[in-house]
Amino acid sequence: MIKTEVIKLDTCGNCDIINITPYIENFIQNNGIREGLINISVKGSTGAVTSIEYEPNLIKDFKESMEILAPSDKKYQHAKTWNDDNGYSHVRASVVGFSESVPVTGGELILGTWQQVVVIDFDTAPRKREVALNGIYQQ
Amino acid sequence: MIKTEVIKLDTCGNCDIINITPYIENFIQNNGIREGLINISVKGSTGAVTSIEYEPNLIKDFKESMEILAPSDKKYQHAKTWNDDNGYSHVRASVVGFSESVPVTGGELILGTWQQVVVIDFDTAPRKREVALNGIYQQ
Amino acid sequence: MIKTEVIKLDTCGNCDIINITPYIENFIQNNGIREGLINISVKGSTGAVTSIEYEPNLIKDFKESMEILAPSDKKYQHAKTWNDDNGYSHVRASVVGFSESVPVTGGELILGTWQQVVVIDFDTAPRKREVALNGIYQQ
Hints:
The structure is a homotrimer.
Chain A: E1 2-11, E2 16-19, H1 21-30, E3 35-42, E4 47-52, H2 56-69, H3 78-82, H4 87-96, E5 99-105, E6 108-109, E7 116-121, E8 127-138
Antiparallel strand pairs in A: 1-8, 2-7, 3-5, 3-8, 4-7, 5-6
């Protein structure tokens, strides 16, 4: 069976990191998924999907580290196209990537205890974000 | 249903970024895909797959940012193995990753308006590249 | 058909990189997979999955490059939470990502000749690691 559900998130931008593991667990339960693969992908070119140990200090570390990869005070050519300020948001999102997939077996996600699936909003202002959960599965 | 198609691209190397969204849309149309998941993966260890807003200034920003992550003027041990010059190409490709997956619902890819799926050729010279499109789907 | 198998690896930590391509090939052969998609994902928030040309000098280059992205001698807030020393391990793992997918056609993985699928253990000490192989396929 194949099922896609789009969830909507209100994000704060500026590297806001949202734990979406509970949404994935609901999706598994609501569809009676026993064996399969769940793909998580984010709409928009300044969002990303990855996993992290979701605790506040590490979230701070991640945000700080992004300043090394794509500093927010560097000059980006992208500003010339739209006169906007989110060149570094785009670069960070493209490097981290917009999708990940996790298997389900016996009705349970295969994730570590301290590993949460997260959506990162790298954009510079609050946004409505859409995240697609796709399951290919047996009940 | 499961279908894999391999597309061939002529790339310029040096961080050449190719928008392959039209190829994915053709794949969906040609196979009558209504609901499913499309995986995009690139053959070769100096290629990568991600998404970006495909506009020329941001493409420049992305290339510049790669010089932070893996500078082209740094010394790489990989040169000792093959006497080649693409150590930084490999590092960049491994960080960005070689595959992404996007769901299809109602015959449409779930992507943002300004979000294109791209193949990046990080290698140092023009190449023939193969990119696999895999669909698991219902018609 | 859908099948998930969890393999166990003994890793050395500190950016240990393990070629798991032979495990994937065994999984394909043991299950008689002809056409399909194999997802590879690692349990734990300090592990990552990507591809690389698996040769010793490039492995050294990759480890060195990680010191740019998330230096091991920087101060990480994560230490305040658990009094541990692996803040940079987490950041690196989140950037590289925990899953990739590769198609199979005619019983063969679609990978480049010099492209191996690898699990990276970014943690700071030897660990037991679990890696999930998920196949959605036809025989």
